[in-house]
Design a protein that fits this description.
By secondary structure, the chain is α/β, with parallel strands linked by helices. The chain has six helices and twelve strands.
Amino acid sequence: MRTTRLYCPEIDDTSDIFSLPVSAHRHAVQVLRLKQGAPLRLFNGSGLEVDVVLEQVSKRESSVRIIERVNVDNESPLYTTLLQGISRGERMDYAVQKAVELGVNRIIPVETERCNVQLSGGRSDKRLAHWQGVMISACEQSGRSIVPELMGVMSLEEALLVETKADCRLVLDPLAATGFSSLDKQNNIVLLIGPEGGLSEQEVQLAKQADFQAVQFGPRILRTETATVAALAVIQTMWGDLG
């Protein structure tokens, strides 16, 4: 039987027994209805992962006993920053979820000309909190013990200026003459993908002025969420740890 993995940033590995924080307790006891003695695997999102068993369980609180620390080494050797044009609802969630599963290290949600989502006022904070939850769930499912960094919502101009140590900056453009197969091996990459409706010609030119190289997949235009998954799968296969 597969052991349940839960995100628990408050792991206390200085003690054999510690209390679960409220969120982890609710998930383990109230949602999954686990009982005393049930095994769990907890990770703190920064690389620490432990196997535990439920030591004491009550309606309002529970504690766990650490069995052993777990060495997890499944981070890709390719460091990837994703500049993701913001799309509506499930499309953005899907792109974020799959990006985490495919090993992305940092995600920057980007507002562009053709974004159909308005994030004025407090909506930006709410969406960031939601996407953070999507990322954590993707780590729980995929076995990653490090939760990627989620930066605040930026305009395209701001995102293009974010400091990185990237060897290569790429923007997806169906009109580009260059494909992925013609690129040299990379270790650190920034990937810009437009929202629903894609990037405008002016935005592609703006990216090129910021040293982004335009690349394309072939004769078919992909939806934004499909493009994210396909592009990350390709670069992880060529330069990362897939296949």
